[in-house]
Amino acid sequence: MTDLAYTPEEEEFRARLREWLAQALPALPAKPPPDDWPGRRAYDLGWQRMLYDAGYGEVHWDASPTVRLIFLEETERAGAPYVGANFVGLLHAGPTIAAEGTAEQRARWLPPILRGEQVWCQGFSEPDAGSDLAALRTRAYRDGDCYVVTGSKIWTSHAEVADWCELLVRTDPAAPRHRGISWLALPMDAEGVTVRPLRTLAGSAEFAEVFLDEVRVPVANRVGAENDGWRVTMVTLSFERGTAFAGEVVACRRVLAELARTARGNGRWDDPALRRRLGRLDAEFRALWRLTQWNVSEAEASGGVPGVGASVFKLRYSHARQELYDTAAEVLGPDRLDLDRPWVLDRLNALAYTIAAGTSQIQRTIVAERILGLPRGR
Ligand SMILES: Cc1cc2nc3c(=O)[nH]c(=O)nc-3n(C[C@H](O)[C@H](O)[C@H](O)COP(=O)(O)OP(=O)(O)OC[C@H]3O[C@@H](n4cnc5c(N)ncnc54)[C@H](O)[C@@H]3O)c2cc1C
């Protein structure tokens, strides 16, 4: 196992960042309400622009995984905004293009993401292809220098406010399922793209169905070789399950500390069962942070792409997050169960964590087969 130790340069990076955050954060405008997606887009892109102007815009791709981790740790600790509406651009599509794109593609798509000018969404899941993503049927056939794409996607987060979509299509229906897929960059304003928002139980239209009707996408928008999209997708998913949630662990530890303080103030602390639960969660989030560091050092040793340890992290983190917000309900009491309170929304959102980016069942299968070496299921 590789051990993570910070170098003097990395500690210096941390100190400079901390100083910058202290003077930059008070200048931020007020945060828009959770369901104002155009407002959130503007706010999140504005924050990315501030990072870019200060020299931190590229930290998600150009910095080493360790520096990225320090960045996430410090921004969370300071209460800075997270990547928000451009989660996909900054943490999935961007790193994938950086790792797999040509020099031309990198020059075309990465700077607008870094400057906070463009938002990306992820068009992977389909109504009959979620856990079994390789069953996807959205079809793309070649016509000159374009693909003509027809099909539909679902659960496409932030599609309504996105400029681009990282889109998985089937380019060879005759090939074995995993070998006939390609990864395309789809402009969301292309003719034939229709976005129909879906509302969550918390009332937010944060994702959508996307319908594609004979949409022409230039062949130059394909990242990776034709029919090699499954391999490119595995790179995207390793970023999604690996380092993309890392900053949130720090945020959860902050919430936990606040809960312990609240429990001391409102008398709930006298309950030994609650104290045990808070203590166990504290141990869990500490362990998750160590696991993140371990995953990052492994990624560092293997060229920057997180490995299967990402699935262990995703599995444990998503369940710990749900338990954290259940515990919050216990500490705060039923009279605080009000949808206007941010932590109630956080609890509802936590429900999605064991589904999004691959369900817990799927992560367990990955851990069983690829880490524990158990026999493959049929
Ligand atoms: C908040 C949120 C945001 C999302 N954002 C996006 C996005 O931006 N882009 C995108 O493409 N997708 C997105 N998704 C979709 C997400 O990736 C899928 O929901 C997920 O992969 C599960 O697929 P499914 O919903 O089709 O469920 P299914 O695959 O139909 O699974 C249903 C149930 O069966 C279980 N199951 C299925 N197969 C197996 C198996 N082989 N072994 C054991 N159990 C199994 C699952 O674990 C699950 O409990 C998002 C989802 C959520 C909740």
Automatic annotation (TrEMBL):
<dbReference type="Pfam" id="PF02770">
    <property type="entry name" value="Acyl-CoA_dh_M"/>
</dbReference>
<dbReference type="InterPro" id="IPR009100">
    <property type="entry name" value="AcylCoA_DH/oxidase_NM_dom_sf"/>
</dbReference>
<comment type="similarity">
    <text>Belongs to the acyl-CoA dehydrogenase family.</text>
</comment>
<keyword id="KW-0560">Oxidoreductase</keyword>
<dbReference type="InterPro" id="IPR037069">
    <property type="entry name" value="AcylCoA_DH/ox_N_sf"/>
</dbReference>
<dbReference type="InterPro" id="IPR036250">
    <property type="entry name" value="AcylCo_DH-like_C"/>
</dbReference>
<feature type="domain" description="Acyl-CoA dehydrogenase/oxidase C-terminal">
    <location>
        <begin position="227"/>
        <end position="372"/>
    </location>
</feature>
<feature type="domain" description="Acyl-CoA oxidase/dehydrogenase middle">
    <location>
        <begin position="121"/>
        <end position="214"/>
    </location>
</feature>
<dbReference type="InterPro" id="IPR009075">
    <property type="entry name" value="AcylCo_DH/oxidase_C"/>
</dbReference>
<feature type="domain" description="Acyl-CoA dehydrogenase/oxidase N-terminal">
    <location>
        <begin position="7"/>
        <end position="117"/>
    </location>
</feature>
<dbReference type="InterPro" id="IPR013786">
    <property type="entry name" value="AcylCoA_DH/ox_N"/>
</dbReference>
<dbReference type="Pfam" id="PF02771">
    <property type="entry name" value="Acyl-CoA_dh_N"/>
</dbReference>
<dbReference type="InterPro" id="IPR006091">
    <property type="entry name" value="Acyl-CoA_Oxase/DH_mid-dom"/>
</dbReference>
<dbReference type="Pfam" id="PF00441">
    <property type="entry name" value="Acyl-CoA_dh_1"/>
</dbReference>
<keyword id="KW-0274">FAD</keyword>
<dbReference type="InterPro" id="IPR046373">
    <property type="entry name" value="Acyl-CoA_Oxase/DH_mid-dom_sf"/>
</dbReference>
<dbReference type="InterPro" id="IPR052161">
    <property type="entry name" value="Mycobact_Acyl-CoA_DH"/>
</dbReference>
<protein>
    <submittedName>
        <fullName>Acyl-CoA dehydrogenase family protein</fullName>
    </submittedName>
</protein>
<keyword id="KW-0285">Flavoprotein</keyword>
